[in-house]
Design goal:
Length: 204
């Protein structure tokens, strides 16, 4: 009987687990912390894709999740982020990764030198894929680009000040960042949908 119960539980937990396909462990840490509050278990799986060229984050996330599911074959999410700076007409947007690798945060500050219009939008798209569902969920956080690079965080964290704060994402630290971040908003939309559609009752 105990044996049966053990395997029953193992099977149940396996059903509840979702993979996060990415190369970015900093993203995973944030996603893991947030989805835990919804009792959604998430596991990191290293997955590198050749990102398609598109002006739309959603298209990139859909393509990436399709490719990841094709290779891994288990329910998973991917996440794609873009930083859209208003006075640069939305640059770097979907090219945020390439821009960070090339000109970096200092390059962004140089482009905005003496520019008082520093508003920007961080957008996150979470794409979920399993055998019959393929969905996206988005989240935004408005803010401004700081004058200087601060300490803390990763990626653009040291130069992005979310609306309502005087500190950058980097200075806020992971917990406070998660309270206001673009990723949290997207994850919240995902988690509400997932909890509603994949409740325990429906799985059995
Ligand atoms: P990705 O293509 O979604 O991995 O992200 C595009 C770029 O934005 C990468 O250079 C990331 O390092 C950066 N990025 C993504 N999310 C965040 C974040 O929450 N804070 C700061 N930078 C981020």
């Amino acid at each position: 009987m105990l044996n049966f119960l053990f395997w029953y539980l193992v099977f149940f937990l396996r059903l509840r687990k979702i993979l996060f396909a990415s190369t970015n462990e900093s993203k995973f840490n944030e996603i893991f912390l947030y989805l835990k509050t919804f009792n959604i278990e998430i596991e990191f799986v290293r997955f590198e894709s050749i990102e398609i060229q598109s002006n739309k984050l959603e298209e990139i996330a859909l393509q990436k999740s399709k490719e990841a599911y094709g290779k891994i074959g288990e329910p998973l999410i991917v996440e794609d982020t873009g930083l859209f700076i208003d006075s640069l007409k939305g640059f770097p947007g979907p090219y945020s990764s390439f821009v960070l690798e090339t000109i970096g945060n200092q390059g962004i500050l140089d482009l905005l030198l003496n520019n008082t219009k520093r508003s920007a939008l961080f957008t996150s798209i979470v794409a979920y894929k399993d055998s019959n569902k393929h969905m996206t969920f988005s989240g935004d956080t408005k803010g401004t680009i700081s004058e200087h690079i601060t300490e803390g965080g990763w990626g653009y964290d040291p130069i992005f000040i979310p609306e309502g704060s005087t500190a950058t994402y980097g200075q806020l630290g992971i917990t406070n960042k998660m309270g206001v971040s673009h990723r949290t908003h997207a994850l919240n939309n995902f988690a509400e949908w997932y909890s509603g559609n994949y409740s325990r009752e429906q799985e059995f």
